């Protein structure tokens, strides 16, 4: 089979790999669509993502969907041909009682397409992938595998919105309108937010945010300012330089949910308002099982299509990564066609 493999910084190849065979408790999935995430871009650009550094070639991709191709021994309750997406996490280790159910915070979490551990965890940008049966999520009727590939990042957004509690009827600011930020916009509106303001330094992505449900946008590159005294803010850019202005936009006694990944090394940031405004700053990391909630939202009509701006064949993965990395060029979610549709 063909697979999208990163060998090092700037070195992505379409490699031939042996066709996988499902073992006991496993399922073979014929992959159809994969969405390129910022971590995929980082592995390609830098040879690592955050604190995870490539030691061996790695199949990229954790936002995927396809159809069941074959069942391993002992697997029942699902038929070949069933359209599915995949929960890409495999938590390891015991959680303390206070973290019951928060599997994203397990001591070790292996994730599709991640070099966090060695041996690395291969991703899903390949024609076939064997997965544990419990990682499968059947797509609801009417949800295509193309949209199903976005269930994973939509799960990230729904988890972030859930970290803020009940958002119904509230005014919300989302700073950073890339794919995750735009999905936070959509997730907040889906959960009943009255007004969502999206801000970014790239005008093209603000147009995507509007089509994903933003009621108002602020183009920071054109001199727009962040709104003042917003009770609930989501920071989705992950830029340390943005923290000062974003914290200042939070109302006194308000809440900031940090969705964008911040650097794993020291970086300058202006944080004084965190104290003087008594802001509650909440972290949000991946998701527990909100990928299942994402499928319900898709079934109920949450439209992710405005986010999809480009599609490429698997053979053109290098060009797809180039486009995904160019936010100024207006790319939203870039999809790879991994196999038959």
Topology summary:
Elements: E1 2-8, E2 11-16, E3 26-35, H1 38-46, E4 48-49, E5 52-53, E6 58-59, E7 63-71, E8 83-86, E9 89-92, E10 108-111, E11 128-132, E12 136-138, H2 145-148, H3 151-163, E13 171-175, H4 179-190, E14 195-200, H5 203-211, E15 216-219, E16 230-235, H6 243-249, E17 250-258, H7 272-276, E18 280-283, H8 290-299, E19 308-313, H9 317-325, E20 333-337
Parallel strand pairs: 13-14, 13-16, 14-15, 16-17, 17-18, 19-20
Antiparallel strand pairs: 1-2, 1-6, 3-7, 3-11, 3-20, 4-5, 7-8, 8-12, 9-10
Question: What does this protein look like?
Answer:
The chain is of the alpha/beta class and 341 residues long. It folds into two domains: 2-150 and 304-337, Quinone Oxidoreductase, Chain A, domain 1, CATH 3.90.180; 154-283, NAD(P)-binding Rossmann-like Domain (Rossmann fold), CATH 3.40.50. The chain has nine helices and 20 strands. The chain is globular, with a radius of gyration of 20 Å. The chain starts with a strand and ends with a strand.
């Amino acid at each position: 089979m063909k697979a999208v493999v990163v060998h090092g910084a700037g070195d992505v190849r379409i490699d031939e790999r042996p066709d996988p065979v499902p073992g006991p408790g496993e399922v073979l999935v014929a992959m159809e669509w994969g969405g390129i995430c910022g971590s995929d871009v980082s592995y390609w650009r830098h040879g690592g993502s955050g604190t995870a550094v490539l030691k061996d070639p790695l199949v990229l991709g954790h936002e995927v969907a396809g159809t069941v191709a074959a069942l391993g021994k002992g697997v029942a309750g699902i038929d070949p041909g069933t359209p599915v997406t995949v929960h890409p996490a495999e938590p390891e280790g015991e959680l303390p009682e206070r973290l019951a159910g928060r599997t994203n915070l397990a001591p070790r979490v292996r994730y599709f397409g991640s070099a966090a551990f060695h041996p690395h965890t291969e991703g899903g940008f390949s024609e076939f992938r064997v997965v544990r049966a419990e990682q499968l999520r059947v797509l609801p009727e009417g949800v295509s595998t193309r949209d199903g590939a976005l269930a994973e990042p939509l799960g990230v957004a729904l988890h972030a919105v859930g970290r803020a509690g009940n958002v119904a009827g509230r005014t919300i600011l989302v700073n950073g309108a890339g794919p995750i930020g735009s999905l936070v916009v959509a997730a907040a509106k889906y959960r009943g937010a009255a007004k969502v303001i999206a801000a970014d330094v790239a005008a093209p992505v603000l147009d995507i945010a509007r089509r994903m449900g933003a009621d108002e946008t602020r183009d920071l590159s054109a001199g727009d300012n962040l709104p003042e005294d917003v009770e609930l803010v989501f920071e989705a850019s992950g830029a340390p330089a943005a923290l000062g202005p974003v914290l200042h936009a939070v109302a006194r006694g308000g809440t900031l949910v940090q969705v964008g990944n911040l650097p794993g090394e020291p970086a300058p940031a202006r944080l004084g308002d965190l104290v003087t405004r008594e802001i509650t700053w909440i972290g949000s990391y991946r998701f527990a099982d909100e990928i299942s909630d994402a499928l319900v939202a898709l079934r109920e009509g949450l439209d992710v299509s405005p986010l999809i701006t480009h599609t490429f064949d698997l053979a053109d993965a290098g060009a797809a990564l180039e486009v995904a990395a160019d936010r100024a060029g207006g790319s939203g979610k870039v999809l790879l066609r991994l196999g038959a549709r």
